[in-house]
Design brief:
Blueprint (H helix, E strand, L loop, with lengths): L1 H23 L9 E8 L6 H20 L7 E8 L4 H13 L5 E3 L4 H13 L4 E2 L16 E2 L5 H14 L6 E6 L2 H16 L6 E5 L7 H9 L4 E5 L3 H12 L5 E4 L7 H8 L8 E4 L11 H14 L5 H20 L5 H8 L26 E8 L2 E10 L5
Parallel strand pairs: 1-2, 1-3, 3-4, 4-5, 6-7, 6-8, 8-9, 9-10
Antiparallel strand pairs: 10-11, 11-12
Helix pairs in contact: 2-11, 3-4, 5-6, 7-8, 8-9, 11-12
Length: 398
């Protein structure tokens, strides 16, 4: 009987301790000491030029926040896995981070096809996913409580740039070269819808498969169609490839890309291929980060990043850095008792929440998780992204 009493006492103590443990560490990925954040990036595939840079930005922000004491004493533990821009691999590493690493949430998952493939898996588990590195609308339409966009959507960017070049530049024969996937399709639809709203039709459209490296056929067909303006619904190397083909054909036509193409890799790779990318336009929601940036926080980031990594930052690294700080700002608003549901509730109260780099502000509601609505127009001049006009807005928050 005595042994039975001792055994019951031990059992009750264990139950009580387990209950206290659940109280103290009641949310997956959050303990008294840390918050576990996950992200999948293309570190070895066709857009590794973006993914590697995002990872550097994420890691720098995490180090700064942790060195400053963390968030209510909790340090961020960042886990970044390689998707290789392959949806199947993205799903595999996402399941690993959910089931093995027990992440609290995901930040900055890379790419429309890859982040799009993992989105339903994450949402089904009721895990927040914030600011995927894509401006595809599938991350906020239809409304999903667990998914938050962070970039002015490709659809909005496409409508903004199309309207600008038709109304301000007098373009009449608009063509497009687009990636044959989720990203390219939504960009194409934005162009088509804006032209329709102005009583026009898309003059010519040429697609390419993701991962393609040759674009001579597409550019030749657009030239033969006599387009006077071409939208490039492309990322990095596809953009440079299209510009190179136009140069070979001695075709002087205005071309404009969207945020995936607004990167220093465009002038750098063009120069390596023996030509200048000057005159190429692009849309984005914030000024490119240079030492003379008008925002003092951005200037400090440029200086610190260059000291930290020995090279200048690019837009993808800015995105990763800003995303982590945005998370930290919201987590502090939530308070010490951080849970996934409280984090989402707080996100949905944000109205015109400022971007630390001076870009488009963020608004989230219980009806819409789009986030950013503004876009600006830039052009490459002397190898630098130079402001042209804006910000413009296709629609206002609901």
């Amino acid at each position: 009987m005595k042994n039975r009493f001792i055994w019951l006492s031990v059992l009750l103590t264990g139950v009580l301790m387990f209950g206290l443990s659940l109280t103290a560490f009641g949310e997956i990925g959050v303990t008294d000491d840390e918050i576990v954040i996950g992200s999948h990036q293309d570190l070895s595939g066709p857009i590794a030029g973006w993914g590697v840079q995002v990872k550097l930005g994420l890691e720098m922000a995490v180090k700064e926040i942790n060195d400053a004491g963390g968030i209510y004493g909790r340090k961020i533990r960042l886990i970044v896995e390689d998707s290789a821009y392959n949806p199947g691999q993205a799903i595999m590493v996402t399941n690993k981070m959910i089931n093995r690493d027990k992440v609290f949430m995901f930040i900055g998952n890379m790419g429309s096809p890859t982040a799009g493939a993992t989105k339903p898996i994450i949402s089904r588990k009721k895990i927040p996913q914030m600011f995927p590195l894509t401006a595809a609308s599938l991350f906020y339409e239809p409304y999903d409580r667990y998914s938050f966009g962070g970039f002015t959507p490709y659809y909005d960017q496409a409508r903004i740039l199309t309207k600008y070049f038709v109304q301000q530049k007098g373009k009449k024969k608009v063509g497009i070269m687009y990636q044959d996937d989720e990203m390219g399709s939504i960009m194409k639809k934005g162009v088509e819808d804006e032209l329709k709203a102005m009583g026009m039709k898309l003059h010519a459209a040429e697609s390419y498969k993701r991962g393609a490296t040759v674009f001579s056929t597409q550019i030749s067909k657009l030239k033969r169609a006599d387009c006077d303006f071409v939208v490039l619904a492309t990322v990095i190397r596809e953009t440079v490839g299209a510009l190179a083909e136009a140069k070979k054909l001695q075709w002087k036509v205005d071309m404009c890309g969207m945020s995936p193409a607004v990167t220093s890799y465009i002038p750098y790779l063009a120069k390596g291929a023996g030509f200048s990318a000057d005159g190429f336009y692009g849309t984005g929601q914030s000024h490119y980060i240079y030492p003379d940036h008008p925002n003092p926080v951005a200037r400090k980031f440029y200086k610190d990043y260059k000291k930290f990594y020995g090279k200048a930052p690019d837009q993808p690294s800015v995105a990763g850095y800003s995303d982590i700080y945005f998370f930290a700002d919201v987590a502090r608003l939530v308070g010490p008792d951080l849970t996934r549901e409280k984090f989402i509730d707080t996100m949905e109260t944000l109205r015109d929440f400022p971007d630390r780099m001076g870009g488009a502000p963020y608004t989230f509601t219980k009806k819409s998780h789009q986030g950013a609505y503004d876009a600006m127009l830039f052009v490459l001049k002397g190898g630098k992204w130079t402001f042209v006009d804006g910000p413009f807005r296709h629609k206002n928050p609901e």
